[in-house]
């Protein structure tokens, strides 16, 4: 049996922290589906789902068992549909815990086979988030320590504020 994992997130944009979790998940499961999802609690995204998909595709091109998809609906429905055995999420610091715990339990109530597996973030990425990347890029700062090199230019040129170009 091929063990499929789903790795959901907003990925707006994908960071080195996300890439680390995706890479490690690809070593633990036969197939990993990176699932671009909508977080109803977050205001409008900076990148469209298709743009996010293309950036992740470029950053994960070297990982043979990773595919990308876009979610339009409930995560558990998707998980059930593809017969995934795990939902993989990265856990950063204490602050992530409550929110992630709430989502994992909600998903389990909605679908009893929904198992969430948390991978501890690497210490280099403890502080990293898409919002931090967006802020630095907006003011013309160097985001190369935070995002995959192959998509650096795409992210920087899109997010930088006019007067910082
Ligand atoms: O990157 P994020 O914002 O932490 O990802 C959160 C996400 C997108 C995984 C979560 O909001 C989600 O699963 N959205 C899909 C809709 C859904 O199933 N919501 C119920 C989960 S509690």
Report what the structure shows.
- By secondary structure, the chain is α/β, with parallel strands linked by helices.
- The protein has one domain (4-126): 3-Layer(aba) Sandwich (Rossmann fold).
- 40% of the residues lie in helices and 17% in strands.
- The protein has 6 helices and 5 strands.
- Residues 8-10, 37, 39, 71, 74-75, 103, 106-107 line the site of 4'-phosphopantetheine (PNS).
Task: Summarize this structure as a short list of keywords or feature phrases.
binds 4'-phosphopantetheine, 40% helix, five-stranded parallel β-sheet, globular, alpha/beta, 165 residues, Rossmann fold
> Can you list the ligands bound to this structure?
4'-phosphopantetheine
User: Would you identify the CATH H-level superfamily?
Assistant: HUPs
What's the alpha carbon Rg, rounded to whole Å?
Answer: 16 Å
Task: Give the overall pLDDT as a whole number.
Answer: 93
| H-E string | EHEHEHEHEHH
Number of helices: 6
Distance from N terminus to C terminus (CA atoms, Å) equals 51 Å
Percent of residues in β-strands = 15-25%
**Main sheet specs:** 5 strands, parallel
Q: What number of structural domains do the residues give?
A: 1
CATH topology: Rossmann fold
Low-confidence parts lasting 5 or more residues at pLDDT below 50? none
Structural class based on helices, strands and sheet pairing: alpha/beta
DSSP helix fraction? 40-55%
Shape call: globular
Number of strands: 5
Strand order of the largest sheet: 3-2-1-4-5
CATH class: Alpha Beta
């Amino acid at each position: 049996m091929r063990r499929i994992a789903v790795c959901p997130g907003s990925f707006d944009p994908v960071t080195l922290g996300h890439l680390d979790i995706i890479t490690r998940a690809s070593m633990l499961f036969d197939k990993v589906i990176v699932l671009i999802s909508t977080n109803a609690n977050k205001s409008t995204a900076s990148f469209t789902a298709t743009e996010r998909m293309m950036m992740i595709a470029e950053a994960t091109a070297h990982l043979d068992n990773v595919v990308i998809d876009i979610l339009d609906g409930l995560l558990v429905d998707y998980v059930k549909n593809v017969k995934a055995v795990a939902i993989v999420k990265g856990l950063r610091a204490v602050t992530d815990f409550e929110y992630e715990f709430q989502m994992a339990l909600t998903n389990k109530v909605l679908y009893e086979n929904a198992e969430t597996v948390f991978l501890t973030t690497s210490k280099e990425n403890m502080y990293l988030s898409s919002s931090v990347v967006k802020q630095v890029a907006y003011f013309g700062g160097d985001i190369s320590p935070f995002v995959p090199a192959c998509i650096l230019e795409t992210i920087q040129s899109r997010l930088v504020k006019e007067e910082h170009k």
